[in-house]
Amino acid sequence: MVAIKGLTCIVIGGGYAGINAVKAIRKTFKGQASKRTLRLILIDKNPYHFRKVLLFKPAVGDEDITIPLTRLFPEGVEFVQATVTKIESGERRLLCQDAEGNKNSIKYDFLVLAVGSVVRQPDPDQGGMALASLDAAWKIREAWRANIKEAVKEKSAKERQRLMTIAVVGAGISGIETSAELAYFIREDAVLLGLDPSAVRIKLFNANKRLFPAGPAKVGLKLERSLDACGVTTLHGSRVLQEKEGALTLSNGETMSVGLCVWTLGLLPNPMLQSIGLPITPEGYVIVDASYRVQGAQGVYSIGDCARIVDPASGRVDGKTCKEATAQAARLGKILSADIAGHPTPPHKEFIYFFCFALGPEQGMVWTHQWGLDIIFTGKLGWRIRKFTWDSASLLK
Amino acid sequence: MEKDGILKLERLVEPKAYLCKMVTNRCRDLFNSARKRREQYFGQWLPEPLLTPNDESFESVVQGELLSYAMLVLLERLSLTERAVFVLREALGFEYADIAELVGKSEANCRKLISRARGKMGITPDEPVNPEAASEEWVRRLLAALEQGNVDMVVSMLAKDVVLVSDGGGKAFAAVHPIESRDLVARFLLGLIRKTPHYEGGVHVEMRDINGQTGLVVRSGEGIVTVALMHVERNSIRNLYFVRNPDKLRHLLK
Ligand SMILES: Cc1cc2nc3c(=O)[nH]c(=O)nc-3n(C[C@H](O)[C@H](O)[C@H](O)COP(=O)(O)OP(=O)(O)OC[C@H]3O[C@@H](n4cnc5c(N)ncnc54)[C@H](O)[C@@H]3O)c2cc1C
Q1: Is the dihedral of CA B243, B248, B251, B253 positive or negative?
Q2: Are the C-beta atoms of residues A240 and A252 closer than 8 Å to each other?
Q3: Residue A129 and residue A286: Cα distance in Å, rounded?
């Protein structure tokens, strides 16, 4: 008979995958509390859950997009603020460093690695500002505000127009949402300052031929029209090489005057995965099986942006967004309890095709494909669904 | 529609509220007028068939037109709110409480709306929503059976409670009421095949990609006379749709 003992489960990363994993693990273990006690530890380098997908908000206003992790889990979960540097899976222990630089090691029975991704940044000599962190978002806001204030005093019409023009480079979900939000708020500020709001120009640079290549062309077209209606012009098939002193250079040799250039270039796997001591793919994602177990590392699982997860049925690689992360987290709860009990684990299944876009305050669009139909919600209901997904991913629902 | 809104917007004191209201009203008007037209329609009403994949015109499910014909026919029976709650529940799997919050109605009300929507679509409470468009293989087999006049074969391909709906819009001959039951539908189909020699210049039937599935386009010397689509369930034909109203076929000629 197996002796009844407490188990320690550590979740690394308080992002969307991590907090949802903590919630799911707690839930599945509650039912079995009588059999085994579970010590659940959440480690993050920050004291808060960072609502990354709302990064465009501090670029336009005062919204706080962090939630203290102790507020999300006031009880039943221990929180450690530290940066994990190494996983020694043979010894079932991890090494970490706290904010003061003190090194520590912690033993575990089960480990969930959910350290996510980082925002892809342009080279420093490419100029502009990447929407990559809270700090960067604030700086972007300062920059456009300073620009339109200057535009009020500016005598030259040409220079005034430059100051009121912003290039958003990279037309993924983040670029789409950021440009719609910028268009709305800058216009609002322009009105307050007595400037002509229609002179605010937001140019969204898309390297692809259309928006939203993951979905049907008509959805991309519809998105483009909605952006156009809120004052965003989309330029397809155009690559920006650099921004220097207000001049944007495109790959086709053209130049354009802009007051600010914001890069939204997508995500890269967390670079710390290179040295953490687990197997990774050439692109830098953790290698896992269909039940999120890390190859060759007993008791270690990985989900979210940092893992390469494949649907065993279709062979498709899971997307790297919040909805996949939260669905994986929910399944991981069941996988862990099945593994502990020695039962077969539920395999990964890809998430239904479902995409949401915010298109400025109270406007949004949702697309899904079901029953052979393209189903689209627009306007306020689209926006409400959008907000619902943000809130539920951050456990605010 | 949204464009008009933005143009006027700049001249207004409370643009956002106005815009929301205007768009809502406009949608409601469109919807009501469509419904009125349908209530005064002669015989059965079916949506317009759309050729795929080139046709990129579209609206949202909450507002209108879509792809898979069988599902489209079913969704067309619903009100705007019913469609919204139905899709949130059945396509996206939202909880009732969340749907209630999203559409601003009580949870009890949403449950009622969804069960009414299922009722209108003829889907029983525990039946999954999954109308399957007939594959090319199916359409070919049915055509062959009809051409051979093989009654048994045709009957064996039809579901017991098969329904055939024809839309002539009062402008083309069409059954005013749906034809129900396996025997009646089989007899009707075979009758059609026997009648074809009476068309001037004969008829020509071709398979085309319509609403994302294989459909039949029937042409006579006068042009397209019928578009037929079907939906298969548990390995037999559950629904047949015959669009004959010339107004709904004209755009296919382009
Ligand atoms: C600007 C932007 C917009 C986006 N928009 C959308 C969107 O609209 N919709 C959508 O679905 N997705 C969007 N995404 C993607 C989405 O943010 C990610 O898919 C999601 O965050 C993945 O969750 P995760 O938990 O795997 O990783 P993350 O959210 O990145 O969380 C990782 C966590 O790990 C912590 N961590 C990292 N390294 C260590 C370490 N060494 N030690 C301890 N802790 C560590 C981090 O502090 C962080 O809390 C967007 C991303 C960005 C950047």
Answers
A1: positive
A2: no
A3: 29
* B69: Cβ contacts below 8 Å, ≥ 6 apart: B47, B49, B133, B210, B211, B213, B215, B229, B231, B241
For B149, other C-beta atoms within 10 Å of its C-beta total: 11
pLDDT in tens, A113-139: 999 999 999 999 999 999 999 999 999
Measured in degrees and rounded to the nearest 5, phi and psi for residue A310 equal -120, 135
Contacts of A354 in chain B (CB under 8 A): 92
Distance from CA of B151 to the nearest CA of A (A): 31
Mutate to test the pocket of ligand 1, among A51, A268, A320, A322 (most ligand atoms within 8 A of CB): A322
CA A310/CA A289 separation, integer angstroms: 8
Name beta bridge partners: A104: A96
Q: CB B60 to CB A226 under 8 A?
A: no
- For B165, the token pair is 């709906």
Residues B251/B176, Cβ–Cβ less than 8 Å = no
pTM: 0.82
Cα B6 from Cα B9, distance rounded (Å): 5
Closest C-alpha among A4, A46, A39 to residue A22: A39
Q: Which residues of B touch A362 (CB under 8 A)?
A: 16, 20
Report the SS3 class of residue A109.
Answer: coil
Pair A204, A175: CB distance under 8 Å:
yes
Please give the helix or strand (H or E) that residue A337 lies within, else none. Answer: helix A322-341
For the stretch B117-156, pLDDT in tens is: 999 888 877 777 776 666 788 889 988 998 888 999 999 9
**pLDDT tens-digit map of A64-118:** 999 999 999 999 999 999 999 999 999 999 999 999 999 999 999 999 999 999 9
Q: Which of A203, A205, A183 is nearest to A258 (CA)?
A: A203
Contacts 24+ apart (CB under 8 A), A226-230: A226/A180, A226/A359, A226/A363, A226/A365, A226/A378, A226/B2, A227/A176, A227/A179, A227/A180, A227/A183, A227/A359, A229/B2, A229/B3, A229/B5, A229/B6, A230/A180, A230/A183, A230/A184, A230/A359, A230/A360, A230/A363, A230/B6
